[in-house]
Amino acid sequence: DGGITQSPKYLFRKEGQNVTLSCEQNLNHDAMYWYRQDPGQGLRLIYYSQIVNDFQKGDIAEGYSVSREKKESFPLTVTSAQKNPTAFYLCASRQDATPYSAQPQHFGDGTRLSIL
Amino acid sequence: AQSVTQLGSHVSVSEGALVLLRCNYSSSVPPYLFWYVQYPNQGLQLLLKYTSAATLVKGINGFEAEFKKSETSFHLTKPSAHMSDAAEYFCAVSEPNNDMRFGAGTRLTVKP
């Protein structure tokens, strides 16, 4: 089945540690996104990528980094500079990269990150 | 810039009652509008989308939404709530410069 796979489902970070969240899609979609979800705040965009080897900062990129070396993969690193990383992280993709589009985003099942 | 406002962070209905979740948007261009549902510890699943083909849009699980340009609204309804409808619902708008913007979400509780 085509879809978006996020791993791990649960992740724990120690102080001063960088952690990487995996996102893989087999939908052949051009655009990929990372969102952070906190209770009562909806989804906030961290980074997005419209094409391989290119990505743009979203609203809350500080303390995060990404790469897009392959079309199907868009890993997110939560660095030690992110002082409040506890949240639910969602990866999404969309078929084409045109920002203004009738095409919906498709979502993975998320990774829940907590501080040890 | 476009934005989305969902009125009511929590909505509670009895099983069998009408479900009405409100969404208003601001837009300088004809909008593309979406409703998503999220069950606990899962990702978002598309319920329906408006793309200007018809103002009344039918989606999955018996939900539908009506686009009203004069009211800048895209409210989500379902005639009869089921226990399985309990979840969080997000309205979203596609923006020319910033891709997709999501509302803050409405948590639906269904009482037996």
Can you offer a commentary on this structure?
The complex is a heterodimer of chains A (116) and B (112). With 116 residues, chain A is mostly beta strands. Helices cover 0% and strands 48% of the residues of chain A. Chain A has strands at 4-7, 10-13, 19-25, 31-37, 43-51, 54-57, 64-66, 76-78, 87-94, 106-107, 111-115. In chain A, the strands form 2 sheets. In chain A, strands 2, 4, 5, 6, 9, 10 and 11 form a 7-stranded mixed sheet that branches. In chain A, strands 1-3-8-7 form a 4-stranded antiparallel sheet, with no helix packed on it. In chain A, a hairpin with a 5-residue loop joins strand 4 and strand 5 (43-51). Chain A is globular, with a radius of gyration of 13 Å. The model of chain A has no long low-confidence stretch (mean pLDDT 93). With 112 residues, chain B is an all-beta fold. In chain B, 0% of the residues lie in helices and 58% in strands. Chain B contains no helices and 11 strands. In chain B, strands 2, 4, 5, 9, 10 and 11 form a 6-stranded mixed sheet that branches. The radius of gyration of chain B is 13 Å and the shape is globular. Classes of the chains: A mainly beta (116), B mainly beta (112).
How would you concisely characterize the structure shown here?
Chain A is an all-beta fold and about 120 residues long. Chain A has strands at about 5, 10-15, 20-25, 30-35, 45-50, 55, 65, 75-80, 85-95, 105, 110-115.
Query: Could you state the order of secondary-structure elements of chain A as H and E?
Result: EEEEEEEEEEE
Compute the number of strand runs of chain A.
11
Secondary structure class of chain A reads: mainly beta
Low-confidence stretches of chain B: none
Provide the structure class of chain B: mainly beta
The total count of strands of chain B amounts to: 11
What summary fits the major beta sheet of chain B?
Answer: 6 strands, mixed
Low confidence ranges of chain A: none
